[in-house]
Give the backbone structure.
Amino acid sequence: MAFRDGPFENLKVPLMWTAALAVALGLAAAAVLLVADRRQETGGLAAARAGAESAIGPVNGVFAYPVRWIGSVSDWVGSYFFAVSENRRLRERVAELEAVRDANLALANVNARYEAMLGIRTQPRVPMATARSVSDARGPFARARLIDVGTAGGVKVGNPVINEHGLVGRVSGTSRGVSRVVLLTDASSQVPVLIDRSDARAILRGDGSDNPRLEYIRGQDALEVGDQVLSSGDGGGVPRGLPIGVVAKGVDGSWRVKLFSDRGAIDFVRVLKFEDFSQLVEPDVLMAPPLAGLGVAPAPVAAAPAVPAAAPATAEPAR
């Protein structure tokens, strides 16, 4: 028989009174528990409380597990999104640091080249002007550069130009702030050179290729592959002893030179303010003893003419 067909079919429990009764019973139970918790638990109450906790503990663990699982999932999701945002921020930071690193490496390279350029010394000393290449003119035979120093910096036509590796070329034209440099590879370039091993002389002539040709070689067995080539100073246009390159054999059988200046970019150079060898010696050095004595010799004094000594008498032979 269904419940609605029984004797309690028409029984209706007031909802409000039922809720009020449940709340009152709950408050009463809470008050009893609070009072019991504040009192010293002894006797049957303590045993009952312990039994209730033992019975309710596993049930609470079962109900608490989903809560703990949801909390761990929430923590994992929060950690994941935090890691994503942190990863994005770190990627941006790495990109910024890479740009800073590249800039620092470029500055370190420039500083190293500046130090190498400033460390160049000639013996005897020749005044120099540091410059930077501002343009490059290339053609089948023409090889030239424009540098950002001119007559305002004391540069003149014919001045040698070097980089940290060796001789680059010579100044062929100047203005107040810009000069034109003809490289050693230009077809119009001719530089007297010497071979360091054999002290042989030759002319280094450019022909538009990367390796200029050695011509008018003087000396027997003067050249070998790998010989170092220096400026000879003949003609007074370039100081003696500037490094130029090493001797190599061309595919056509001609003697050529692998230039030291090609070991790096020709963007920072120094111009030797060299005119002739007279500027390499100071005037005080030219007048140093014993040459200085020629202008300060004492005036001659009158003296009695020397009388020739009498011839020694020869003994007559005894008769």
